[in-house]
Specification:
The protein has 338 residues and is an alpha/beta fold. It has two domains: 1-92, 5' to 3' exonuclease, C-terminal subdomain (DNA polymerase, domain 1), CATH 1.10.150; 100-337, P-loop containing nucleotide triphosphate hydrolases (Rossmann fold, 3-Layer(aba) Sandwich). It has 15 helices and 13 strands. A hairpin with a 5-residue loop joins β10 (299-305) and β11.
Amino acid sequence: MTKKEDNIDKDFIEEIKNNPKPKTVEPKKVAMKVQDLPGVGAATAEKLSLGGFDTLMAVAVATPGELVSATGVTETTARKMIQGARSNMDMGFKTGTDILERRKQVFRILSGSSNVDKLLDGGFESGCITECFGQYGSSKTQIAHALAINVIKQYPDAIVVFIDTENTFRPERIIQMADGAGLDPDVVLTQIRVARAFNSDHQMLLAEKVEELINNDENVKLVIVDSLTAHFRAEFVGRGTLATRQQKLNKHMHVLAKVASVHNICVYVTNQVMAKPDQFFGDPTEAIGGHIVAHNSAFRLYLRKGKAGSRVAKLVDSPNLPDGEAAYRVTQEGLIDV
């Protein structure tokens, strides 16, 4: 080997040491759209959009029956669409660290009473359903109005959805609380979307239409259902209809829970109560809806009247907080501590 060839080999070996492995360029992943799913053409995509399934997430978490009802496709095609959406999204198991990072996006709406907010570890949490139940006059609707004001105070561009089943929404009350919070009442009223539900089917439809508001770039932060069980209680009478009522109520709450989780929205529902006739000792008050409502609500507050016109909120169920009580008053400006 000549001296020149020896130098060439040394240079080649040195180059390999400095660059042991050539860099490979990863192909850029193209974001899939609903139109790209298997079995989805232009007509089917339009029907999906009209039915509220205009994102991959909406299709991925839907049931085959929902897609069949919205588009008219076969169940096999619906399953392929769901599978295609799920395979394009990261919907498998996650680590506890991943969940902790996602939990950092959760926000809390203040009630106005520091006692109540402390009971709930900072306020009413987003991403889940919070239920308040109690007798008439226990301030369930007052809290609903207060949350509507406070979420707009915290997020000036926030939109509030109020599904009214008992004709309880009062713009006059919003004006009083907005003045107390230092907000412009006229602006606040334009940021609240109110719909009166006249039966349980209408109520369920309105809950599904919340997705449409979000898809129209409305910054929905709070959804209020006042009350959750009034229509179901009136329409399904007797033990013979109990199974049907609970099934519909369960479906309704699943829609609300999905909206809360997918879009990081705070869902606040009020619930009626009944007195247990076989309860001879202790408080006979029990919430309507049984275990269906209880299991679907992440936080449950039992509201009752206290001394000298005060109110008491008792936390009876929570995934991470201990039971406790908080006393507060309802004033013209909103909720305050006792």
